[in-house]
């Protein structure tokens, strides 16, 4: 499992902790920054991390900012990305089972590290159910083709 991870300054500290957690569990993590708590702009980090998911270099992505909202907005502007902002374990499970989300966003100023670790573990280990959910996901993705 290869995961692209990225954060802005608001998510930097959680990114560092989450990287350690995932690597200890055998997950291969590619870090697209940011690399300090210096103020920066979340789209600059969401784009390359999502690019690694879209190219197939990484299986999925995890994005962190203060609320997770800016990162999820930037991620979902990219064709082919289905980013889910999660602050609870149930949503993390269901967005994999039903939405086939390929990127997870979390708010480092909203949830603590232990919950973030659990949410990430669930997201990475839950399969998409397909079936009727594939039809719905296809309809969502078709929206990208509208003018
Ligand atoms: C940065 O202060 C903050 O706005 C950012 O981390 C994020 O929460 C935006 O959605």
List the helices and strands and how they pair.
Blueprint (H helix, E strand, L loop, with lengths): L1 E6 L4 H13 L3 E4 L11 H13 L4 E6 L3 H8 L6 E3 L3 H9 L5 E5 L5 H13 L6 H11 L5
Helix pairs in contact: 1-5, 2-3, 4-5
Bound molecules: D-ribose.
Which tags fit this structure?
binds D-ribose; Ribose 5-phosphate Isomerase B, Chain: A; alpha/beta; 5 strands; five-stranded parallel sheet; 147 residues; single chain
Which ligands accompany this protein? Answer: D-ribose
Q: Would you give the CATH topology?
A: Ribose 5-phosphate Isomerase B, Chain: A
Quick one: CATH class? Alpha Beta
Helicity range: 40-55%
Distance between the termini: 35 Å
Shape: globular
Describe the strand arrangement of the main beta sheet, using strand numbers.
2-1-3-5-4
Rg calc: 14 Å
Model regions low in confidence, pLDDT < 50 over at least 5 residues: none
Q: In the CATH classification, which architecture applies?
A: 3-Layer(aba) Sandwich
How many domains comprise the coordinates?
A: 1
Kindly estimate the percentage of residues that lie in beta strands according to DSSP: 15-25%
Mean pLDDT, rounded to whole units?
A: 98
Could you walk me through the main structural features you see in this protein, from its secondary elements to its overall organization?
With 147 residues, this protein is α/β, with parallel strands linked by helices. It has 6 helices and 5 strands, in the order βαβαβαβαβαα. The protein has helices spanning 12-24, 43-55, 69-76, 89-97, 113-125, 132-142, and strands at 2-7, 28-31, 60-65, 83-85, 103-107. The chain has a 5-stranded parallel beta sheet with strand order 2-1-3-5-4, with helices on both faces. Helix 4 links the parallel strand 4 and strand 5 (103-107). Helix 1 packs across helix 5 (113-125). Residues 8, 10, 42, 65-67, 69-70 line the site of D-ribose. The site of D-ribose (RB5) has 8 residues, from helix 3.
């Amino acid at each position: 499992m290869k995961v692209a991870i990225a954060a802005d300054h608001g998510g930097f500290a959680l990114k560092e902790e989450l990287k350690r957690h995932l690597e200890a569990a055998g997950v291969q993590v590619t870090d697209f920054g940011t690399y300090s708590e210096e103020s920066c702009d979340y789209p600059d980090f969401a784009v390359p991390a999502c690019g690694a998911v879209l190219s197939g270099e990484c299986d999925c992505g995890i994005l962190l900012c203060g609320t997770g909202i800016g990162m999820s907005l930037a991620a979902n502007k990219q064709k082919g990305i289905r980013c889910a902002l999660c602050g609870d374990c149930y949503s993390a499970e269901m967005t994999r089972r039903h939405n086939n989300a390929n990127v997870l966003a979390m708010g480092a100023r909203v949830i603590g590290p232990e919950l973030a670790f659990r949410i990430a573990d669930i997201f990475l280990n839950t399969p998409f159910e397909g079936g009727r959910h594939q039809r719905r996901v296809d309809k969502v993705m078709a929206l990208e083709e509208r003018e």
